[in-house]
Design goal:
The complex is a heterodimer of chains A (about 400) and B (about 375).
Chain A: H1 16-36, H2 39-65, H3 68-95, H4 120-133, H5 164-173, H6 175-182, H7 193-202, H8 204-224, H9 229-255, H10 265-268, H11 273-282, E1 286-288, H12 291-296, H13 303-308, H14 317-330, E2 337-339, H15 340-353, H16 363-366
Helix pairs in contact in A: 1-11, 1-14, 2-3, 3-9, 8-9, 9-15
Chain B: H1 4-13, H2 23-33, H3 36-46, E1 55-66, E2 69-76, E3 88-95, E4 98-105, E5 115-120, H4 126-134, E6 140-143, E7 166-171, H5 175-188, E8 194-200, H6 209-218, E9 222-228, H7 238-244, E10 252-256, H8 259-271, E11 278-281, E12 298-303, E13 308-313, H9 318-324, E14 342-347, E15 350-352, E16 358-359, E17 364-367, E18 371-373, E19 377-379
C-alpha cells in the first residue's frame, strides 16, 4: 500500500475501493435527504430569521429606550443572541447554498451577506472553497491554525507559538476581525511581493464591509438613540463581544480538539470521493448537546456532518448524525464527539501544550494519536503506535 | 430581494464612476450597508405585504372550464396597473418550500371587474397541478406586472373604435390571450368582421364556451369557428382552414397555440406572403431535451451577461465544456462542494451529476461543475 492510494487515520485504514464503498453509503444518505428537502426546511430557516429579527429589534429598543442595568443586560443579550443566530444558523448556512433549493432570493447562497465585518465574497472563497475542499491539509487549508496558531504536532514550531495562549485569547475577543481578514492572507505580505502589490484591491471589499459595520453599530444606532448613545454603543460592543467569544469557541471545537488529524498534501493528492469523505470525518469533531446548543452553533456542533454535506440544510444534521455514526462504525472509522466542555477543554489544553516545541509526529505514529476518540472496536491502528502515545 | 437592481448598479459603477456618490445611489447603498433593506423586506412580510415588484391578489372565484382547465379570478391589491388585452403576468407560488414562477396569459379583458388566469393542468406540472389542487377562494397569490407585446393596438383616450378585419387564431391553452383580446373588442363596441378560429381536442375541451356563445350572439360581426381533433383532422389543417377563412391573408392575425401548430400556421402565411400580418405569442419556449446517448452532441449556450452565444458539448461537465469554448467562468473545487461556479440558468434543461435530477425549471441556480446540458441553455454569465 502506498500513501497515494490509501489514507491512514486513527481509524481502520481503508483501501481506495473500501473508501469508495464507504462513500457510496454517504452518497445514498445525502440523496435521501436532498430528495426530502421542502417546506419543513424553509419553515425552519424562516422561523430562525424571524427570531433573529425580533431579538435584534427588541435588543436595540431596550438599549435605546431602556434605563438601568437590567434592560441594558437584556438588550445587549438579545442583540448578541440575534447576531449569533444570524451569523451561525442563518448566514453561514445560507451562504453555503443550503437553501438554494428553495429559490427564495432572500435565501440565496450567492447573494446573502451576513451581519459581521467579514465580506460575503471573501468568506465564500476562503471558507466554502478553500476550507471545505482542502479540509485540514497543511499548507492548503489556511484554517489550520489560521497561519499563526499551532494546533497540530504536524505544524513546525516557531518561537512565536510560545505566546499562543495569549494570541488565541486575543483572537477570541476579536474573532469577527480574524474571520474578516482571513482571505486577505496578511501573513504572506512579508515574504510575497505579489501579495503586497495586490493587497489594496483585495482588501477593498473587507474595508467597505467593515466600514459599514462599524458605522452601523457604533455611530448610526447610537446616534438614533440621542442621549442614550453611550449606552447603545456599549451594548452593541458587548453584543459583538459575546458573539465573538461564542463563535470562536464553537469553531475551535470543530477542528482542533484532541483526535482530529491533519493531512499532508501528498496524502490527499488524487483522492477519490470516498477518500475525500474520510478526510472530512478524520478532520472534524462534533459537540454533543441539546436542541438549543445545536441551533446556537448553527448546527456546527455537527461539524462532521457539515463537512460531509456542506450544501444540505444544517438543521438536518441531527437526524443524519446517528446514521453517519453507524456507517462510520461499520467501516471502522472513528467519530470524534464529546460534550462542549470536553471539546473546549481539549482545545485549550492543546493550545497550551503545542505552544511549546515538540518533535513533529512521524507519519506512522500520527495514526494513533487519540485514544479518547469514540473508536469502534474494529478500529485498527497501524503497527508503530506505542511511540506516539508518549 | 427588494433592491437587486440597485445592488448591482452600485456594485459595478461604485468603483469606476466619479468618487462623488449621488444621493440616488447613496440611499440604497446605505440601506444595504446597514441591512435596512433586508429588515424592511422582513417587516413588510410580517405585515402581510407583497414583496417589492409583486402584487398580492386574492382569489375571488375558481371556474372549472373543462376537465383539466380552470380559471382563477383574482382581485389584485395595491400596486396593480391595468393590463392590456393579450398580456401575461408571472405568477409566483411556493410548492413544498420551493418558489416557482410561471407566466400565464391573462384571460380577462382590461375592463373586466376581475383579473383572471386560465390554467391547464399539465401532466406532472408542479405549478399547474398545485394551482388546481390547492388554490381555493380567499387564498392570496403573488403576481408580477402585466407584460407582453401581443396586444391590440391602443387607440385614442375616449371610446376607442374597435379594429375590424381581425383574425384570432388559437390552439389549446393558446386561447387565453386571444380570449382577452376578444373581450376587449366586445367592450370597445360592436365587433365587426372578426373571425375567431380555435383548435381543441374535442368540444368538451373548449374553455370559455359559454362566454364565446354569448359574445357571438350579441355580435353578428363575429364568426366563431371551432376545429376539433375528434371531428376531423388533428390540429391546424391548411385546406380546412383556408376553406373556412379564404381571406385570411388580408386580416391582421393574432396567433397563439402549441409550437407545432404555430410552425404550420407560419408556413401557410409565408406561402401567402402575409407574414407581416401575423402577430405571435409563444406560451412555452420549445425545449429540446436530449437523452443520455446524445452526450457528444453540441448545444448552444447563450450567455446573457456577456451577450454572446457559444457552442458547447463533448466530454465532461458544463464547466469544462464552457472552458473549452474559450470562456473563463468562476470556479473553485470543481467537484461540487464549494458552489463557486454556481450561476443562474434562465432557461433550458440540465442534469445534475450528483443528484441525478433533470430540471427544466426557468431561473434556477446551477453548479456548472456538476451539470450537464440536456438542451440549449441560457445562462446568466
Amino acid at each position: 500500500m502506498t500513501t497515494s492510494t490509501t489514507i491512514t487515520t486513527s481509524s481502520k485504514t481503508l483501501t481506495r475501493e473500501e473508501a469508495d464503498a464507504f462513500g457510496r453509503e454517504l452518497d445514498e444518505l445525502r440523496r435521501e435527504v436532498a430528495e426530502d428537502l421542502g417546506q419543513r426546511d424553509v419553515d425552519h430557516i424562516r422561523a430562525v430569521i424571524k427570531a433573529a429579527n425580533y431579538a435584534e429589534t427588541a435588543g436595540r429598543l431596550l438599549l435605546a429606550f431602556g434605563f438601568g442595568p437590567v434592560t441594558f443586560a437584556l438588550g445587549a443579550g438579545a442583540l448578541g443572541v440575534s447576531k449569533i443566530l444570524e451569523n451561525m444558523e442563518i448566514g453561514h448556512n445560507v451562504m453555503h447554498g443550503q437553501y438554494d433549493f428553495a429559490r427564495d432570493p432572500a435565501l440565496s447562497g450567492r447573494a446573502y451577506e451576513w451581519d459581521n465585518v467579514c465580506d460575503g465574497g471573501d468568506w465564500r472563497h476562503s471558507h466554502n472553497y478553500e476550507h471545505h475542499t482542502f479540509t485540514n491539509i497543511l499548507g492548503k487549508d489556511r484554517d489550520v491554525g489560521y497561519g499563526f496558531l499551532r494546533v497540530s504536532e504536524e505544524q513546525r514550531w516557531h518561537p512565536s507559538h510560545l505566546a499562543q495562549p495569549f494570541t488565541a485569547s486575543l483572537l477570541a475577543i476579536n474573532f469577527q476581525w480574524g474571520v474578516a481578514t482571513h482571505d486577505l492572507r496578511l501573513d504572506e505580505l512579508k515574504r510575497d511581493p505579489e501579495a503586497r502589490a495586490t493587497i489594496g484591491t483585495r482588501a477593498r471589499p473587507f474595508l467597505e464591509k467593515a466600514g459599514w459595520q462599524l458605522f452601523k453599530d457604533y455611530a448610526f444606532y447610537p446616534a438614533l438613540s440621542l442621549w442614550n448613545a453611550p449606552r447603545v454603543l456599549a451594548g452593541n460592543l458587548l453584543a459583538n463581544l459575546g458573539r465573538n467569544l461564542w463563535t470562536f469557541a464553537v469553531i475551535f471545537c470543530g477542528h482542533f480538539p484532541e483526535g482530529v488529524r491533519v493531512f499532508h498534501a501528498d496524502e490527499a493528492a488524487n483522492e477519490s470521493r470516498g477518500q475525500w469523505y474520510l478526510r472530512q470525518i478524520a478532520g472534524s469533531a462534533n459537540i454533543e448537546g441539546g436542541k438549543w446548543l445545536h441551533l446556537l452553533t448553527g448546527h456546527l456542533s455537527h461539524q462532521i456532518e457539515h463537512h460531509l454535506f456542506p450544501e444540505l440544510p444544517a438543521a438536518r444534521y441531527p437526524e443524519m448524525a446517528p446514521r453517519v455514526r453507524e456507517i462510520c462504525e461499520r467501516h471502522g472509522q472513528a467519530y470524534n464527539t464529546g460534550s462542549f466542555a470536553k471539546q473546549l477543554g481539549s482545545v485549550a489544553k492543546r493550545l497550551v501544550k503545542l505552544a511549546l516545541p515538540s518533535p513533529r509526529a512521524s507519519r506512522a505514529s500520527r495514526a494513533s494519536r487519540s485514544a479518547k476518540v469514540v473508536a469502534p472496536e474494529t478500529a485498527t491502528t497501524s503497527t508503530s503506535t506505542s511511540r506516539a502515545a508518549a | 430581494m427588494t433592491n437587486t437592481s440597485s445592488l448591482s448598479s452600485t456594485g459595478t459603477h461604485g468603483t469606476h464612476a466619479s468618487p462623488v456618490i449621488s444621493r440616488r445611489r447613496l440611499v440604497p447603498r446605505m440601506a444595504r450597508g446597514l441591512f435596512l433593506d433586508r429588515q424592511l423586506a422582513f417587516w413588510r412580510k410580517e405585515l402581510g405585504l407583497a414583496p417589492a415588484g409583486l402584487t398580492r391578489a386574492r382569489v375571488v372565484a375558481v371556474v372549472k372550464e373543462t376537465a383539466d382547465v380552470r380559471t382563477f379570478l383574482l382581485r389584485p391589491g395595491a400596486g396593480w396597473r391595468r393590463h392590456q388585452a393579450g398580456q401575461w403576468v408571472s405568477l409566483e407560488v411556493e410548492v413544498d418550500g420551493v418558489r416557482l414562477r410561471r407566466c400565464y396569459s391573462l384571460s380577462s379583458g382590461p375592463s373586466d371587474l376581475f383579473v383572471s388566469i386560465t390554467v391547464k393542468r399539465v401532466p406532472g406540472g408542479r405549478v399547474s397541478g398545485w394551482l388546481h389542487d390547492n388554490v381555493r377562494v380567499g387564498d392570496m397569490l403573488s403576481i408580477g406586472p402585466a407584460m407582453g407585446e401581443f396586444v391590440l393596438p391602443e387607440t385614442g383616450r375616449s371610446k376607442p373604435t374597435p379594429p375590424t378585419g381581425l383574425l384570432l387564431l388559437s390552439g389549446g391553452s393558446g386561447v387565453t390571450p386571444v380570449m382577452s383580446i376578444l373581450r376587449e373588442l366586445e367592450v370597445r363596441g360592436p365587433i365587426e368582421d372578426v373571425v375567431f378560429v380555435h383548435h381543441a381536442r374535442s368540444r368538451a375541451d373548449v374553455p370559455f364556451a359559454a362566454d364565446l356563445a354569448w359574445i357571438a350572439r350579441r355580435n353578428p360581426g363575429l364568426r366563431v369557428i371551432i376545429h376539433c381533433d375528434d371531428e376531423g383532422v388533428r390540429g391546424f389543417d391548411e385546406a380546412r382552414f383556408t376553406e373556412a377563412v379564404p381571406d385570411f391573408a388580408r386580416r391582421e392575425t393574432y396567433l397563439c397555440g402549441p409550437a407545432p401548430m404555430m410552425v404550420r400556421v407560419e408556413e401557410t402565411w409565408l406561402r401567402a406572403g402575409a407574414t407581416a400580418k401575423l402577430r405571435r405569442e409563444r406560451f412555452a419556449a420549445p425545449i429540446v431535451t436530449r437523452t443520455q446517448g446524445d452526450d457528444e452532441k453540441l448545444v448552444q449556450v447563450r450567455l446573457s451577461a456577456a451577450g454572446r452565444t457559444v457552442t458547447a458539448g463533448g466530454e465532461g461537465n458544463l464547466l469544462e465544456q464552457l472552458e473549452r469554448a474559450g470562456l473563463t467562468p468562476k470556479f473553485g473545487c470543481r467537484i461540487g462542494i464549494c458552489q463557486t461556479c454556481k450561476c443562474r440558468k434562465t432557461s433550458g434543461t440540465v442534469l445534475d451529476l450528483i443528484s441525478g435530477a433533470i430540471s427544466s425549471e426557468p431561473d434556477e441556480d446551477i453548479r456548472l461543475c456538476t451539470s450537464v446540458a440536456r438542451s440549449d441553455l441560457e445562462l446568466g454569465l
